[in-house]
């Protein structure tokens, strides 16, 4: 019995389109979406800087009575289209930490570059760019909870791998039940420059005061270089679809000096603790979820359409292929 050639062709086409659906979702879609030129995110945090020494003299403060300075931190990350190109997005990052009386404790502007497809930091030869590795403000589209996400720190110029905690949902003012991934970051390293306005060198007498040991083997008038250690413990919440960091519910930076050679271990100098404000969290969630129409089209509707179209063609092909051919009338 002769089968329909057209039916066989349709079966082959249908199978190809059906197979293309998961290939699109898992392989092609992540390559199609790129970081836009209109990235504009403002995050606001509240917390406090705790000082355990006098910054001028490095003399220890009385135990358990640190000086606590409340801070409001505003960070902005804005695309710079003039410095960007088709494969790289340049971001302008500004951060201001204001204390009592509106005094600026931190105020900086930096530029860095991201790969548009992966959202990873990339090095650039452009002037005045801070070259970073790993990730900064976004973990890339369609975040895989089992992925590897090295989180960059400018002070130590090192990365710390984020550790998966759980998946959850959060809501902004406008968009509800946004899928998120919760990570933990924990790491430490030597700072590349003195933090918090602390000196690069200290006298022997200051070291003795810091160690609370007048017989320590240091010349009172000689200047000694000092290595500062920064430790980070943070909870980082990421929009699973858009990849944006939408919440830092807990962020701790602790600064210390290593006195283990003198049998003193690490001596804590200062700590910075802050968390994102509830209003800022909702604003950032809404800002991130605005891209969902495009992301859903790429991740959901296109593969679903391919699957449906492929199945329809496949079914039509099977019907034609399995249908008995009409018998020719006898002469």
Describe the structure.
- With 331 residues, this protein is an alpha+beta fold.
- The protein starts with a helix and ends in a 9-residue tail after the last helix.
- Helix 1 runs antiparallel to helix 4.
- The model has no long low-confidence stretch (mean pLDDT 89).
- Helix content is 24%, strand content 37%.
- The protein folds into 2 domains: 1-35 and 302-321, no CATH class; 37-290.
- The strands form 3 sheets. Strands 5-4-3-2-1-14-13-12-9-8 form a 10-stranded antiparallel β-sheet. A two-stranded antiparallel ribbon has the order 6-7. The protein has a two-stranded antiparallel ribbon with strand order 10-11.
- Let me know the largest β-sheet: 10 strands, antiparallel
Q: Taking all residues together, what is the mean pLDDT?
A: 89
What portion of residues is helical?
A: 10-25%
Specify the number of helices.
4
Uncertain stretches of 5 or more adjacent residues: none
Strands ordered across the widest β-sheet: 5-4-3-2-1-14-13-12-9-8
End-to-end separation in angstroms reads 20 Å
Q: How many discrete structural domains? A: 2
| Fraction of residues in β-strands | 35-45%
Shape: elongated
Radius of gyration: 29 Å
Could you tell me the number of beta strands? 14
Helix/strand-derived category reads: alpha+beta
Tell me the series of helices and strands, N- to C-terminal.
Answer: HEEEEEEEEEEHEEEEHH
Question: What structural keywords apply?
Answer:
331 residues, alpha+beta, ten-stranded antiparallel sheet, two-stranded antiparallel ribbon, 24% helix
